[in-house]
Design brief:
The chain is 25% helix and 16% strand. It has 13 helices and 17 strands. A ten-stranded mixed sheet has the order 7-6-5-4-8-2-9-10-3-11. The radius of gyration is 22 Å and the shape is globular.
Length: 559
Amino acid sequence: MNNTTITKTLPFAALALTASACSNSSEKKEDARPNILVILADDLGYSDLGCYGGEINTPNLDKLAQNGLRFTRFYNASRSCPTRASLLTGLYPHQAGVGRMTFDEHQPGYRGTMTKNGVTIAEALKGAGYQTGMIGKWHVAETPLRPDQRQWLAHQVQHDDFAPKENYPTHRGFDDFYGTIYGVVNYFDPFSLVNGEEPVRTVPDDYYSTIALSDSAVSYIKRYAQSDNPFFMYLSYHAPHWPLHALPEDIKKYEDMYTKGWDDIREKRYNRMKQLGIFEQKGDYLTERQFKDTWEENPTKEWDARAMAVHAAMIDRMDKEIGRVLKSLEETGQLDNTLILFMSDNGCSPENCQNFSEGENDRPAEMRNGEPIVYPRKKEVLPGPQNTYASIGPRWANVANTPFRFWKAKSYEGGVCTPMIAHWPKGMKQGKGTITTAQGHVIDLLPTFLELSGAEYPLEYNGNKIIPYAGVSLVSAITNGEPTVKRDLCFEHFNERALIDDEGWKIIRAAREDKWELYNLNEDRTEIHNLATQYPDRVNKMEQRYLQWEKTHMVEPRP
């Protein structure tokens, strides 16, 4: 691991906590700072969890919500790698170097690798005495393709590095790492699996990613609990990102759940959301379904019902494994003073990955033994086993993101708004099960954790000048239910643009459109009523602020 130096630090207001890690006294003192556990799901729909209205069995996350806090206005960067870069650094994606994907497009905001002009949460907290561990999907390092990529993806040839090792988690502040460098995996035999910095060449026959990641999380927690120093852990599951891979016993639980189709599930989710009080409005807020075809005329009902059943099974298993992680916290006496944050990296994915080209980028064409992987472009093979490669598609994504429109990679709420659960028995003073309208964004995690840990944010780190973080602390919102700082939030991904202002109004300009849309999120949470023609002055003023943000936050120059 590389040696790190921090110079010219900016002081950050810390809680009045006694920390043995920061003390020069030889006398042992109890460190009262909380452990911090961030759990990130991948492509989870807004209403997939039971505590957000879903029919999927998620008792462990539901319990966290019932004893903690649910956010309804928590935002991400609309896609996996940009969100992850923002989450880790407190910077907007382009500032963090990952304005699009993990390929170098030779512009400062689009290098495909997390910048060295920012510090990660792990780098900052490690300097304040925290133990640091990362488990799961990394996806913030440039992953250049090789001439033998097809064979490499199938484990038929081996290379030592999946990306430059200087961009691995162990070189960005994490003491421990078990997970994948790339973004997409075969859940039963993942590509780019690494332990520390060493490639994991083989896995057991009964391997399943979600279980294996949880095994490592449990192991880390038991080890960290033996120290007097608190820990920061980033647990980043692959689930439920495509391909649709799940255990047969988990699929069986849902094999009849989705046979009545899109409208039935969507309406039931919406009704449960109203009963739970997820949104504060009393009126109707369900958007129209984005497709006019009916389930009754669908010629591939069996396949589509099975696809959603596998999606549900992947989430069910993730919740079950999170339960094991929570149990390890409880058994080691860590649960009460661990701040747990659960969220998704973006809205549910509309992609039909079975239509992509196999054997390219991160998509394998064969299994390790040479057996071809079926990409069922005509839905001729049911999804679930590892020799298939498919996803749920846009119709089910529209359901998973109930009540919103759109999905992953869009700047509408269905793309950028995620469920977010906070749980911290020792630190939270507001009522259990509270649902908050306080606004948050993944850029806010770093300043939140700086405040809780007493860590300092550097002006320079390892000889690199550090960009000031873009987020605000959410400590008061999490602990006391206070509103967050009013500010503009901006979004850009492949020319999908949006700005939410400090009064709760939002402008959106889709990539292929030349006009801005305007929504009042205070009254129209699901973006049904476009008010742009009624308030052109407001649109113009918001557009000018957005364009200025593009200039100051490295969106420009574009590739």
